Amino acid sequence: MISFAPDTGVWLLTTPRTSYALRVDASGAPCHLAWGPRLTLAEAEELAGPPPAEVSSFEGRPGVGEELPVDGGTRYGPPSLQVRFADGSRAFEWQPTGHRVHDGELALEFRDRRHPLHVTLHYRVRPDTDVIERWTVVRNAGDEQVTLVRADSAAWSLPALGDYRLSHVTGQWSAESRLRREPLPHGETVLTSRRGITSHHANPWVMLDAGEATEDHGRVWSAALAWSGSWRVTVQRTPDGRAGFTGGAGHDGTTVPLAPGEEFTTPRFAALCTDGGFGAASRAWHAYTLAHVLPHGDETAPVLYNSWEATGFDVDEVGQKALAERAAELGVELYVVDDGWFGKRRSDRAGLGDWTPAPDRFPDGLGPLVRAVHDLGMGFGLWVEPEMVNPDSDLYRDHPDWVLHFPGRRRSELRNQLVLNFARQDVADWAHDWLTRLVGDHGIDFLKWDMNRAFSEAGWPGRPDGADRLGPAYVRNLYAVVDRLRADHPGLRIESCSGGGGRVDLGILSRTDQAWASDNTDAADRMWIQHGYGQVYPARTMGAWVTDVPNQLTGRTVPLRFRFHVAMAGALGIGGDLTRWTEDELREGAALVAEYKRVRHLVQHGRMDRLSPPTEEGVCAVQYTAPDAAETVLLASRRTAGHGAPHRPVRLRGLAPGARYRDTATDTVHHATVLTEYGLQPDLPRGDWSSALIHLVREPEA
């Protein structure tokens, strides 16, 4: 709901549990008033008092408290909007020109007082979520070019608190999503990706609290940027005891040129305030993503098999059919052929860009394999990497100008490949054409869309401003290709992958169905990766595989049961070489797949509670509960079992008060009060790498 008080100029955005208030001040600048527990409009107006008195001539306007701080006047904090006009001036002065309200969306319209540059701040609220979406549109209404030195989506202001703590994730390839919670330092903290992709090294979300929040208690403010290219979020803690943050597409050193009549629309920067600790914040993000981000958030992800760790590049029709038969016996529902099926692809040194089935490996094309997989009752999926090319390929020999490069500079290779310039419309059209033919001609049900290197030499020769236009145009054309492909083939489902978790964000998830969280499939490492991933992104989107041991990356060996139980915390997949599994392993695997299918509706669509985080010793426990609390599942795992280590019970959450719950494996009946207030001791096998799945169903009332 959106309300307005004309006498004071206060706008109030109301969500189911929170309020967000702002006003345009006497200078014309949009200023923040409140973000937190619900307010009436009259209560919000009380907050619109006179501006604070000037402290000294050295301070200027407060560093936190504007809806989109600009570079201009007496502002000295990190600007969200920096403009360079044709005459060399760089300041922006707010002049309100109007507003629009329609269907939960507020648009506040402004222009610069001197130059014909128009800025519209957009806000969207929905009746079923506390998430507020914000974005900005900048339009050049003049006849001279304007340069946006910085154009963030939004700035968010927090109330004055006694202290501040920042939560975010860091990492690298195969070690993504490592959760960090640390006191927010004074000054500016910059989180960014300069790599052209979301990146493995950081992710465009933040959470802030007063340093007192726990998993179950405390107020948390959080935000996530819906963008799949380079990005920057700057968190600021000011000397006067305030904190806020601003974020958007691009990074330092890049600009956005605006030709006469051109406009730039920033990506969505969504945020919410929650009570109930970090767990409540995560659950709010999960519900929002399932309801309003994913194209098919109500669907249940199938159990898939992927051939990569079994075969590498050694892919042929005979071998894939043999694996598919084993996969079907396990209960797999989607069979995915990974890299190596096309062109002269025998290693990562050649073939990328030549997207036709290798005739020596598939003499009759992919058709016979696709039909065989479908006949086994499984969907058929295929790995593709449309944004890349090997120099050793027919595509590159025909179109060396299609890659990112600067004339006269060397073309740096990573993984023996170069990045195709998707900002070029001819490249984007080429990608769409071969992809839609591939999917349509072969009846393909699923694509694993990979992207295995960061940008370098990010130039666009032939365009005088190409290096600056490249980043936004690349991502928008990428989105457009995926959108066109899905429109061509409504039944197609897509997984986002970038060497694992290098492209996971709300932008790519709005047009794909799941994400490959990491190339690291070691179950022990995955416990930490999945813990960080789930802070914002729901289990429904998180691809998680069971692979062979010793693990290809770590050399670690853990039991098959433990590997399955860790992977069951997301969208379960299998990636081992099934032709080498023993009969006992195949039987155990089939039983575990069946066990997952009985509870996956809870994992993928239920309420998630992190009961205890991963540790070297002790039990890591995650619980998923049906919306009506009719059933719940607990996944518990323990890395090591030190002698004398305490065995603490796990206190469950979200159960129906006064109800009784039956363990479907043992028929033991538990009282909800005992489970929530006193806890459950998971019956874990003795020894290291032990795990359990406990499925509880509510008993009918007597």
UniProtKB/TrEMBL annotation:
Its EC number is 3.2.1.22. Keywords: Glycosidase, Hydrolase. It comes from the Bacteria. Residues 620-696 form the Glycosyl hydrolase family 36 C-terminal domain. It is an enzyme of class 3 (hydrolase). The keyword Hydrolase applies. Residues 28-258 form the Glycosyl hydrolase family 36 N-terminal domain. Gene3D superfamilies: Aldolase class I, alpha-galactosidase from lactobacil brevis, Golgi alpha-mannosidase II. It catalyses: Hydrolysis of terminal, non-reducing alpha-D-galactose residues in alpha-D-galactosides, including galactose oligosaccharides, galactomannans and galactolipids. It holds the Pfam family Glyco_hydro_36C. The keyword Hydrolase applies. Belongs to the glycosyl hydrolase. This is Alpha-galactosidase. It comes from Streptomyces siamensis.
